[in-house]
């Protein structure tokens, strides 16, 4: 038998994690086991486990197993950025992200020239063909408001343009899953209809829309709740107030303790519930790199004390790692592990129709995170492949 065949046989062997506390996303199994290769083959109580030929058994001694994380909003990390448009580097970046528990990723762009965005679409498409962790694209801008531009360069901001957007979607291989835009533009209603027709989630963000304007919008998702949007005020609910008042809206939350005060994270949790919050990192290329000078969309960024800021002092994305967001959401809100799993995996899979992701069930992809009792990430399996630092 040649080496290629040996590798094939080895890859088809099943891994079994047993004596684990398993949170499937639907139930908790106190002393459980899970058998998988690229996909999950069996799951249940350890007492019911029956050995099969080729099982590679790992005794977890009571450690915690949860579904792999789904980050639907992250620009980059580890010195790379999705806007760079380099397929090999984007794939390399995503491999690094797996080490923080991310097993499904939406490569996120930002407001830039038409040419740069088109280049990013092509690059991400090629990277996704190489790396199955990339499950889609989040187009953030350029169809936003200059009033709440945040770290988005104002010179490239424009009203929604269906023809332009359709071209980018086509260049990406129809991979755009969510688009951040400002609903107050005159062209936004027709743009929303186009998105819904093409199964793209319209997400309000970097927007100065009033509650009244939001009532006429078809946005079903809010980009980084509280940040870069018309805020909640007693005479004008704004974008944030609209998000709280509408049950159907999913809200992204950056749980790093800097973008949102922990008590405001708790308020969002209390008002929306775990079923409508999605943890994101909104990370940039400086994540995982030493503190100091970095870059975002051609703008100088200074990273210090786990915060990334423009020279103006504005926050510019984050250097948050997803396993820290997972731990922080429990710390900030007092929620259970079950709820944290909902906010880090289940909701994203449901909203974006990622049918093979989000929960640990037979037939689904073997995207699995293992934590110790202190909620420290020990290892990650992406499509059954072990990643361990």
| Integer count of domains | 2
Low-confidence stretches: 1-11
Overall 3D form: globular
The number of helices is 10
Q: How many extended strands? A: 21
Pfam families: Amidohydro_1
Family: Belongs to the metallo-dependent hydrolases superfamily. NagA family.
Domain Amidohydrolase-related: 64-375
Protein name: N-acetylglucosamine-6-phosphate deacetylase
Describe the overall structure:
The chain has 389 residues and is of the alpha/beta class. It folds into 2 domains: 3-66 and 358-387, Urease, subunit C, domain 1 (Roll), CATH 2.30.40; 69-351, Alpha-Beta Barrel (TIM Barrel), CATH 3.20.20. Helices cover 28% and strands 27% of the residues. Strands 1, 2, 3, 4, 5, 19, 20 and 21 form an 8-stranded mixed β-sheet that branches. The protein has an 8-stranded parallel β-sheet with strand order 6-9-10-11-12-13-14-15. Helix 3 (114-130) runs parallel beside helix 4. It is globular. Residues 1-11 have low confidence and may be disordered. Its cofactor is a divalent metal cation. It catalyses: N-acetyl-D-glucosamine 6-phosphate + H2O = D-glucosamine 6-phosphate + acetate. InterPro entries: Amidohydro-rel (IPR006680), GlcNAc_6-P_deAcase (IPR003764), Metal-dep_hydrolase_composite (IPR011059), Metal_Hydrolase (IPR032466). One of its GO terms (biological process) is N-acetylglucosamine catabolic process.
């Amino acid at each position: 038998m040649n080496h290629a065949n040996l590798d094939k046989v080895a890859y088809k062997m099943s891994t079994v994690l047993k004596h684990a506390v398993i949170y499937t996303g639907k139930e908790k199994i106190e002393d459980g086991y899970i058998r998988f290769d690229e996909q999950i083959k069996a799951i249940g109580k350890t007492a019911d486990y029956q050995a099969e030929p080729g099982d590679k058994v790992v005794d977890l001694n009571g450690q915690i197993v949860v579904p792999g994380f789904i980050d639907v909003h992250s620009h980059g990390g580890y010195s790379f950025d999705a806007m760079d448009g380099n397929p090999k580097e984007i794939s390399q970046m995503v491999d690094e992200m797996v080490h923080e528990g991310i097993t499904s990723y939406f490569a996120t762009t930002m407001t830039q020239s038409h040419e740069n965005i088109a280049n990013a679409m092509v690059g991400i498409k090629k990277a996704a063909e190489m790396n199955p962790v990339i499950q889609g694209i989040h187009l953030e801008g350029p169809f936003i408001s200059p009033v709440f531009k945040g770290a988005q360069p104002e010179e490239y901001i424009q009203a929604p343009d269906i023809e332009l957007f359709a071209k980018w979607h086509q260049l990406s291989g129809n991979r755009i899953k969510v688009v951040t835009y400002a609903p107050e533009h005159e062209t936004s209603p027709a743009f929303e209809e186009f998105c819904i027709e093409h199964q793209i989630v319209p997400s309000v963000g970097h927007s100065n829309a009033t509650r009244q304007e939001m009532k006429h919008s078809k946005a079903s998702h809010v980009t980084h709740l509280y940040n870069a949007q018309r805020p909640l005020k007693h005479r004008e609910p704004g974008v944030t107030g609209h998000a709280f008042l509408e049950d159907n809206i999913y809200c992204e939350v950056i749980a790093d303790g800097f973008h949102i005060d922990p008590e405001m994270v708790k308020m969002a949790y209390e008002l929306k519930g775990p079923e409508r919050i999605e943890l994101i990192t909104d990370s940039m290329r400086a994540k995982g790199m030493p503190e100091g000078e970095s870059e975002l969309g051609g703008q100088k960024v200074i990273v210090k004390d786990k915060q990334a800021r423009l020279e103006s002092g504005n926050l510019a994305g984050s250097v948050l790692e997803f396993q820290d967001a997972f731990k922080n959401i429990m710390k900030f809100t007092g929620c259970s592990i079950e709820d944290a799993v909902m906010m880090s995996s289940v909701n994203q899979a449901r909203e974006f129709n990622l049918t093979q992701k989000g929960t640990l069930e037979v037939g689904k992809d073997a995207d699995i995170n293992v934590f110790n009792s202190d909620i420290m990430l020990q290892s990650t399996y992406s499509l059954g492949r072990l990643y361990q630092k």
